[in-house]
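User: I'm curious what two different proteins look like when written out as structure tokens. Can you demonstrate?

Assistant: Sure. I'll show them one after the other, since each token string lines up with its own sequence. Here's the first protein:
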Amino acid sequence: MLDKAVGVLRATAEGPCGLAELCERTGLPRATAHRLAVGLEAHGLLLRTPDGRWHPGPTLGQLAGGRPDPLLDAAAAVLPRLRDITGESVQLYRRDGVHRICIAHAEPPSGLRDTVPVGSRLPMTAGSGAKVLAAWSDPQTQRLVLADATFSDRVLVDVRRRGWAQSVAEREAGVASVSAPVRDGAGQVVAAVSVSGPVDRIGRRPGVRWAADLLAAADALQHRLA
């Protein structure tokens, strides 16, 4: 099975591929290829694009570098507390070009949740996490994002002024979220931490409810990165 998993990794290294192409490249049965790819994705060894194509994930680079990711270590300590305070789903996103990748999450044990699997690769055109990462991106990235975004440059100005962003039914119908920037020891924005949940429960102004707790969590993450 290890040889087959390595074969899946090698196949995706040739270029992003969906399940049919993965089977063609590896010669594996459809069920086996899917099971291995999903398992590798769960550990961050593969990532999946919104159109369902797999490509190598960030854990490969971390393993090659021989050093743990300090942001993931910080998230493991901070995200569960934010989840317990809010009772909602919590995510940590890192920007990759004009996409954002969920690199860590903490889910409530029960009830209706907004589950974003680790490794999910989302466009930065909608959602509070996208707004935060776009607001502190370089001008070229902002232009590319704003060309297709549900929000405007004026919204990004407000996000930078306020220090957090919120969204209601932007990324997914019925879901609201609020996000804040996470900074490293040098003060650079390296991620966005988010709280999300059903609009019916979290409300149409999630920032009013959770911004203070979210900003405290962002500060705790920065403290651990410093």
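Here's a second, unrelated protein for contrast:
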Amino acid sequence: MTEAPSAPGADTRGRDRSSDEPACYAALDLGTNNCRLLIATPQGGGFRVVEAYSRIVRLGEGLGQSGRLSEPAMERAMAALKVSAEKVRRRRVVRLRAIATQACRMAENGQTFIDRVADETGLRLQIISPQEEARLSVAGCLNLLDRTYDAALVVDVGGGSTELSWVELKDAPPTGTPPLRAWLSVPIGVVTLAERFPEGETATDGWFRTMVETVKAEIAAFKRADPLRDVFDADRAHLIGTSGAITSLAGLHLKLPRYDRSRVDGIWMTRDQCDAASGHLLALNPRQRADQPCIGPDRADLVLAGAAILQAVQELWPCSRVRVADRGLREGILISLMAERSGRRRRKRRRGPRSMAAA
């Protein structure tokens, strides 16, 4: 796995860190809509989060029309990245991986912005491929896979793209990553879809249906997952949905007075419950959606686009149950970083101390 170098001030060799102080690892994800940072220490077979930071920056705002990242969008992202870099320094992170996704992949000036980020913050962002993005999303959701099913479809709805990963669970080992049978990246996310189909004063069933059909047309042309079609038709598969829009739907379904990750992450929703939450949103005007405690003004104009993407997937790949994931890319990065460091330590122990001649 390729890693971005650590930010200035990151304690890459463990100096100035007491021997009994757990090492901190960090994952930073700069997407089309959000900038997210997660800092954690290893704990058992997983990790313990010591700090999390997330800001809606809308880096991809207007990108579909102009082909470029706008100056206001870059300034919003830069402000969040500077905060993230300071948190990395303060926590003396030993390993950091910072990635950028669809907005920077698409934009003519995406690499120029990446270079500017390095100059101004010290963070060296890596623009990853859609395939790597899908792989990391699956890795971050491994604990949510129900291995009593024969297959699962992990749907990562981003701001500028949606990654779909078909995972085969039948006869897969009880632990570790099961076989990834097919993956698809659709260049449609909540920001790009919402900008393509502006809502107007009120949302209508016809307007929502147009978004659903647009997404379906992109996914339906993909045939590499067809060997798993019978499994889905027989309802022996489940979905895992990871995105702010899907977690917002779950919060709405639960009628939470405020968003609570501990109550949302990992819950199961039926297809009917997903449809009911989407129907509830359609009945609200933009101001009413903004007043919903699990949506707020920053997502009010995007959540229905996310609901449309989820519905398109459910119509093409029917599952009676959806597991909601408030996790994904960042968690996948952390798991990969910690596993790699643990593997290096095991190899070093097997080699033993260097001989005098080698020294």
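A detail about the second structure: The two ends are 29 Å apart (CA to CA).
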